[in-house]
Automatic annotation (TrEMBL):
It comes from Negativicoccus succinicivorans DORA_17_25. Residues 1-45 are annotated as: Disordered. This is Membrane family protein. It comes from the Bacteria. Gene3D superfamilies: 1.10.1760.20. The chain crosses the membrane at residues 56-81, 127-149, 161-182, 202-230. Keywords: Membrane, Transmembrane, Transmembrane helix. GO terms for molecular function: transmembrane transporter activity. Residues 16-29 have a biased composition (Polar residues). Residues 1-15 have a biased composition (Basic and acidic residues). Pfam families: ECF_trnsprt (PF12822).
């Protein structure tokens, strides 16, 4: 009979190695102490920027067009008591073609330029437009409104663009004049030499007399431009 030798290690209970958080921290510290060329290649977490390079370039381009229209005077239509504007057109185009971020940033440039114009070339209504809540905030929201209306509208491309431009332009007039009534009704009545209770009727009249022609003009100008831009634009994912 063969003699079998029993392995002493067989009687020892098997144990499972358990790592503790302290050991993990020590291992991480040892890796950190290594020279840079000996450390394992670990990709750092990527951070998504607020705007892509493409969006920044297009925002700068549309903002430059807005400033050019304002500096040359072609972006403002001088009326008796205020300046009607077509400076919102680049903002609408940016919101429809490139999304709300480009539209809102272009609207910010538009609003800041409107504020600047009322500082250097004041009119009877400049006391109102010196308030950023009236001259800047509604213009920033225009890019978002243009984007949302365009995305929500069914139907043909041209119809969606025209309705978006029409609604956004009307909202520009309504927001500006509505905030004027809320914040400066008394001052507006004094400037126009009318009773305070007549201010709301005058505001509505301005919205109709100025807002409707501006909206129609925006739809006529924006629709063919956006159609061309969408056809020539590369089929990349829209950045919100």
């Amino acid at each position: 009979m063969e003699n079998w030798q029993k392995d002493p290690a067989a009687d020892k209970p098997r144990t499972t190695e358990v790592t503790s958080p302290i050991n993990d921290l020590q291992a991480d510290s040892q890796v950190a102490e290594r020279p840079a060329d000996e450390r394992p290649n670990v990709a750092p977490p990527t951070k998504r920027s607020f705007m892509t390079v493409r969006q920044l370039v297009i925002t700068g381009l549309l903002g430059g067009i807005t400033a050019l229209l304002g500096l040359t005077g072609y972006g403002f239509i001088h009326l008796i008591y205020m300046k009607a504007t077509i400076l919102h057109i680049p903002t609408i185009i940016g919101g429809i073609v490139e999304g709300p971020r480009v539209g809102m940033m272009t609207g910010l440039i538009f609003g800041c330029f409107s504020l600047f114009q009322n500082i250097v070339a004041p009119t009877l209504m400049s006391i109102v437009f010196l308030n950023p809540l009236i001259s800047v905030l509604p213009r920033v929201l225009l890019g978002l409104i243009a984007y949302l209306v365009y995305r929500a509208m069914p139907g043909a491309q041209a119809v969606k663009i025209a309705v978006s431009a029409l609604v956004t332009s009307m909202m520009n007039t309504i927001m500006v004049m509505g905030l004027t009534y809320i914040l400066y009704a008394k001052e507006f009545a004094e400037m126009r030499h009318v009773p305070l209770d007549q201010v709301v009727n005058i505001i509505i009249g301005i919205c109709i007399a100025n807002g409707i022609p501006e909206a129609i003009g925006a739809a006529v100008i924006v629709t063919p431009i956006v159609l061309v831009l969408l056809k020539t634009r590369k089929p990349t994912r829209r950045q919100a």
